[in-house]
Amino acid sequence: MAPVVTATSSQPSRPKLLRIAWVLWISTGAVRYSHVVTDGPGALMRGHCSQRLIPFRRPGGRKLRNLTDVTSSAWPAALSAARLHVVSGKGGTGKTTVAAALALALASGGRRTLLIEVEGRQGIAQLFDTPPLPYEERKIAVAPGGGEVRALAVDTEAALLEYFELFYRLGMAGRTLRRMGAIEFATTLAPGLRDVLLTGKAKECVNRRGPDGRPVYDAVVLDAPPTGRVVSFLDVTKAMADLAKSGPIHSQAAGVVQVLHSELTAVHLVTLLEDLPVTETLETVDELTAAGFPIGAVIVNRVRPQWLPDRSVAAAANGRVDAERIRAGLSAAGLDLPADVIDGLVAETVDHAVRVHAEGIALSRLDDGPPLPRLELPQLVDGVDLGSLYELAETLVEQGVAVHTLSGAAS
Amino acid sequence: MSPARVAPVLDVDALLDDPDTRVVVCCGSGGVGKTTTSAALAIRAAERGRRTVVLTIDPAKRLAQALGLAALSNEPGRVAGVHESGAGRPGGGELHAMMLDMRRTFDEMVYAHAEPGRAGTIIENPFYQTISSSFSGTQEYMAMEKLGQLAATGEWDLIVVDTPPSRSALDFLDAPQRMSNFLDGRMIRLLSAPARAGGRGLRKIVGAGFTLFAKAVSTILGGQLLADASAFVQAFDTMFGGFRERATATYALLRSPGTAFLVVAAPEPDALREAAYFVDRLSADDMPLAGLVLNRTHPVRAQLSATKARDAAEGLRGAPLAAAVLRLHADRVDLAEREERLLSRFTSAHPAVAVTRVPVVANDIADLDGLREIGSRLAAGDSEEPAAAAPGRALRSAR
Fold first, then answer.
1. CB distance from A242 to chain B under 8 Å?
2. Interface pTM (ipTM) of the complex?
3. Do B387 and A344 touch (CB under 8 A)?
4. B3-302+350-398: CATH superfamily
5. Pairing with A333, which of A13, A363, B26, B159 sits 20 to 30 Å away (CA)?
6. Model-level pTM?
7. Closest Cα to residue A369, out of A289, A301, A292, A304?
8. Which residues are registered as beta bridge partners of B158?
9. pLDDT tens digit string along B62-98?
10. What is d(CA B199, CA B185) in angstroms, rounded to the nearest whole number?
11. 8 Å CB contact between B215 and B117
12. Chain B positions in Cβ-Cβ contact with residue A177 (cut-off 8 Å)
């Protein structure tokens, strides 16, 4: 830190310069923005990114799906027939973001979807930049082509009270009980009860029909607990074994079990091309299969482009980068850079190659696993705002994500 | 960039070397690298001469192997291969590591606190078995309990604690209280025998509603579960005082000046938001925050703007390697810019929080050298010195 006078002294201006460069780049039309009107809270901005100059490529000469190339293996017809999309993934893989993008994608072209969160973290509200969601279904976004996304943050305690109200008239006592912690206590006593209520709520939304007799939602997307807990979360049968052997909740649970194990449901797993998330994904696939849940797609999130030619990756990952060739190539383009900058570029190239190499290994582990539909979402450099959600949804639509027309699916 | 936005640099070595630092707690939301960070801090502290123990929660397999944690032991074991010379300090350090076994920790607590003869009854209770293995706060509670035990031995210069992989960092602080409320037995007595327990006053408030609720709960949960729960709570009652005392003592330890919380976050919006919540909470509870570890950053190593690099790449013909290098550099500049933007958002809301950035290591940590590398990155503090950091690193990797 101390010996780096030149670097630090020039540093303060650098981020500012970058920001200017970024803005200039946007204003040249490399990134287009268009607006979509919404009556949800806050105006939504829809961003398009046409950054994809070169298709992603991976080691081993395997060419990944070009993102504009709709392949049936990415989203087979069976997934279009599913109405309940359960999204799970290891912590930190972007599960909630992917669930939201999926809800948007499935709503495009005039559909209506419901995005449900169950962990009480208000992740949806943060993502869509709205105030915390109450326990009610609320329109939060307009999808491309006139569809709409509603959101529901399930509050377990409220759900339990709601449920009790169906069978026992608690009246005003409900609120007092809640304040006393009695509701939390009851769900703590039997953790399975909590899960039964949450999956029960999702199933009710899937099955609900409007006055015209058609389902209210074309699809329901459930932002489920992370991979470590998702199987026990879905395993209503097991949870019920801990509860009373008869009673109202039992008959409801039977219906939930039926939906969760039918083709109405698809459990999607979000992963990154890293060792641990891939390991957890493969383990969860096995667990889900063993428990008899229909697995949907593996969604590879934050995919970054590979710029190095395949043949250079292995050598570069081992630190072998021909700095002289780079210098000469740059010089030919009129870019004469000082030695320290070249050294920096070499270091970045090694980092890039090491990452690409590790991603290739992760990818081949997925390839060697059970054959499953696979979707990919790019890493968005500006991926913090609402516009990026639309971008991700669009990428999903381009890969074939859609719902069947209801006349076909609803029966 | 305005100077107000620049966060103070977290001096990790000063923190680890300070003999007054007795406990370091690594917190953060799931998937940010808490376990690896804890292990890297612990080995660094040990090799700088402190007798250190690291309490890990559910480490990845290879990390566990690197630490010699083949199986759950629930007691610290010495880690082989640590350089114990202690950087010239007399005495030398040591590293011990353990992996939390929450069930065993809970059992041990029961044996330690229950009246003789009662412990067996409690441990065999089916309800206890549920609570000790799958209650959502048990892991956090037991991590705190284990920390309390390790601190009580007085054997350690430094205890480094990893926290359970919950969605929210706050769970670590909240779970013990929730668990404590749950175990205090008032509610279960109300539910299992609402007519007798709770006193008239409470019954009057909730009135008939409660009777109905109790009935509903017992219909849903089943008589057996309630009976088990009730038996458990009765048996537990005698030792509850001891439990609460310990929880209070551990909480006090966390608030003492010898403790340092490190909040770990990835440069992603969710993780930084959780980190912000946690920082606010620590300050509200007067808990000692040492700083933020911004993990897995992608600092720029070459001073060249993204635009310039992309333009040059467009114009390059016949030099694919150079073009690729320019493009990957431009992406990296964008990514670094995004990470700095996210961090400055955090920093402008929490200007006093010291930060250290840990540049990403592409491969998973498989051995002690990998942990040492993370440790030196942690200690390098602010690594946003593009040109400076590059040459040595490039030469090293080029050989």
1. yes
2. 0.81
3. yes
4. P-loop containing nucleotide triphosphate hydrolases (3.40.50.300)
5. A13
6. 0.81
7. A289
8. B52
9. 888 888 887 657 889 999 888 876 454 545 789 999 9
10. 14
11. no
12. 206, 209-210, 213
